[in-house]
Amino acid sequence: xxxxxxxxxxxxxxxxxxxxxxxxxxxxxxxxxxxxxxxxxxxxxxxxxxxxxxxxxxxxxxxxxxxxxxxxxxxxxxxxxxxxxxxxxxxxxxxxxxxxxxxxxxxxxxxxxxxxxxxxxxxxxxxxxxxxxxxxxxxxxxxxxxxxxxxxxxxxxxxxxxxxxxxxxxxxxxxxxxxxxxxxxxxxxxxxxxxxxxxxxxxxxxxxxxxxxxxxxxxxxxxxxxxxxxxxxxxxxxxxxxxxxxxxxxxxxxxxxxxxxxxxxxxxxxxxxxxxxxxxxxxxxxxxxxxxxxxxxxxxxxxxxxxxxxxxxxxxxxxxxxxxx
Length: 325
What we know:
By secondary structure, this protein is mainly α.
């Protein structure tokens, strides 16, 4: 792989995280006064000033930002104002729930969206292929919280099949807590993952269909058919394989999207992940937690896009040789 290409992509990723961290740190100034949130509005002015001095809020913005940035490079994201614990510990405690939810939703979207897109492309023009595409538009259009509420109403309130909130029973594997190894944990994961994946299933299906239609019109596909190769081999080996590059792109962006926008789903299902942590920090003006969440999301996006670029370079020799994305 061209080292210039790798260095350029690393530089882009670092720049994105830097800009987002600067914006996130600046937004913390607009969230609210953490001193008032901690002490209350009736606290005396002397106590307010003492706490402001203790938290370092009376220092210039630039000084505070660079202290934060250098600390973040070593894994120190500051102390949570409300929990009085290191922010990194709070994040690591909530991270497994969000990662498992995002990965489950991504797996659902790929396992359902890719076959739907392939079927809609191969049997284009049929009424049920048109119905699939119409359903995909509905899936993209429905707000996630509406899907979540409908799922709770049907499968929890009426049928009583699935729990309406929480993560279920979890077990610890080292520092990682997971509900994937317990029955109640798996049941609790189903509805949040489905609610989070609905729009992504529709997106993947429409993308695969568009790419398949383009590839099925290519000359090499016509040549393969003329040679007498079976349609199944042409469709699912030659054509589908060449749709994987845009799918790689969508998958990389999708993972960052799912982690960032799991906030709504986690709130609807009271899922104990990063989303509920972030919303709680907003209501309590816990600026270090808010900033760390936004920086973490930017880091996920930057790293997944970097991984996508590297996979592109491995899949497409033109990228490897030219050093261009």
